Amino acid sequence: MLFKAPQLGLYIRIVAILSLMLGLNDAGRLLGINLGSTSPLAVMGPSAFVYLAIFSLARLFAGVGLWIKASWGAVLLVGATATELALYVAGSPDIRMSAVGFSVRVILLVAIVLIFGLSIRINRAQAAD
Q1: Which of 7, 112, 5, 114 lies closest to 65, judged by CA?
Q2: Residue 32 contacts residue 40 (beta carbons within 8 Å)
Q3: Mean pLDDT for each consecutive 10-residue tract of the chain (129 residues)?
């Protein structure tokens, strides 16, 4: 199912841009942009590095999927974000984020769930006509 409703196009693109920005921010953390000569692998640890790499790639692919309005992008974004938030709330020491990062992820999750709901509602209304 593609997001065919033209009313949702702008909102989907905004969520795609947010997903891409968050994925690029995580990729920057993986590369150790603010760490100087210190290795990010040494700072984070191997398991935290792998988690961050997986979530960063998932979010980047999800952003591209959302930009082309494919439903797999939304599914990937929901899965990656929900898993990351669940690990963080469960207290995993490998998942680290600030309060701003947590709130951005919650906003992304709520936004994409709303887009799913609105898309289903619009598709049902069009099918009834």
Answers
A1: 112
A2: yes
A3: 68 92 91 79 86 94 92 91 94 89 92 86 79
- Check: CB of residue 87 under 8 Å from CB of residue 94: yes
Torsion of CA 74, 77, 78, 84, to 10 degrees: 180
| Residue from 15, 25, 6 nearest 98 by CA | 25
Both tokens of 17, joined, read: 């841009």
Reported as half-sphere exposure (CB side, CA atoms, 13 A), residue 91 has a value of 0
Radius of gyration of the chain from its Cα atoms, rounded to whole angstroms: 16
Distance CA 97, CA 100 (A): 8
Q: How far apart are CA 84 and CA 127, in angstroms?
A: 36
Contact 7, 104 (CB under 8 A): no
